[in-house]
Amino acid sequence: xxxxxxxxxxxxxxxxxxxxxxxxxxxxxxxxxxxxxxxxxxxxxxxxxxxxxxxxxxxxxxxxxxxxxxxxxxxxxxxxxxxxxxxxxxxxxxxxxxxxxxxxxxxxxxxxxxxxxxxxxxxxxxxxxxxxxxxxxxxxxxxxxxxxxxxxxxxxxxxxxxxxxxxxxxxxxxxxxxxxxxxxxxxxxxxxxxxxxxxxxxxxxxxxxxxxxxxxxxxxxxxxxxxxxxxxxxxxx
Length: 237
Ligand code: C5P
Known about the structure:
The chain is of the alpha+beta class. Helix content is 30%, strand content 34%. It has six helices and 14 strands. The chain has helices at residues 46-63, 100-105, 134-139, 145-168, 213-216, 222-235; strands at residues 3-9, 13-18, 23-28, 31-34, 39-42, 70-73, 78-82, 85-86, 89-96, 112-122, 131-132, 171-182, 188-191, 199-203. Strand 6 (70-73) and strand 7 form a beta hairpin. Helix 1 runs parallel beside helix 6. The longest helix is centred in the middle third of the chain and has 24 residues, at 145-168. Cytidine-5'-monophosphate is lined by residues 90, 92, 99-101, 129, 175-177, 198-200, 212. Cytidine-5'-monophosphate binds next to strand 9, helix 2, strand 12 and strand 14.
């Protein structure tokens, strides 16, 4: 498959056109950013680890009945995905309170959330991705009511599948973010990426952070931690 013009370049990934209008090449770069792009660094091998990580998880989800845009690995840092009409919202599920939830609501860091909680955010860097609700999505036409129901259902389904998978590999799935889009027939599919850039994982025994919080909090060993998570989940499959 021929890699064509760059369609879009985000903070950590670039999307490229291909000779097939229905397919794009998703390139995972080594760029790592936090705090709305205020902190940016290049982390050697991170693009490769996240590409392999995402491919493994998306394939597992697909095999468990969650439809995704992922098609196949193309190279160490590239994957082929379906060309989607993206819905401009982020779906976050939290099993343990940390990050922005604690800042916003004054909740104790590390509190077990039973049942897990769900939040929608608008994808809008200039406004720091504000939290929104179902009514905003409906009134502003970002997605239909049916799509809102499906996004929530699918995100909780992913939480069940990944929560069990990470528990089996000795980790706790703390929280994660998903994005959805519509394929050429209008079907809602899971899109974007799932990687240690978009999830939080803690070691089950030590509660050591194994995700992008290592970068956000200057803990060091970022790519090594990502690679360790990948090693644990693939060794266990
Ligand atoms: O920052 P916050 O606590 O709201 O993040 C919740 C989860 O969503 C974390 O796993 C974080 O990595 C992910 N996230 C993301 N992209 C964003 C915001 C949050 O992947 N723009």
